[in-house]
Q: What sequence folds into this?
């Protein structure tokens, strides 16, 4: 009797797990009516944009130096492509 009850509880837990997984992954409970966001991007506002580069004239930035090869030589890398012609 006890073992039959344990099996029944086990089967119910497994069934509830499958049902919960189905509802979670199928998004069956989600609201399907979502209003799209309004289009507010107005690129014409950027036409008169002025960027102040005087910040880069500070002493902290002037001591920075480029090290190594410029432009970077890609060298040999990766495997050879067997399908290349």
A:
């Amino acid at each position: 009797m006890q073992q039959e009850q344990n099996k029944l509880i086990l089967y119910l837990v497994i069934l509830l797990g499958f049902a919960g997984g189905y509802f979670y992954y199928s998004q069956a409970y989600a609201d399907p009516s979502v209003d799209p966001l309004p289009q507010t991007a107005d690129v014409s506002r950027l036409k008169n944009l002025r960027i102040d580069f005087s910040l880069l004239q500070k002493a902290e930035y002037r001591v920075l130096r480029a090290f190594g090869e410029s432009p970077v030589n890609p060298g040999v890398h990766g495997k050879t492509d067997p399908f290349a012609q």
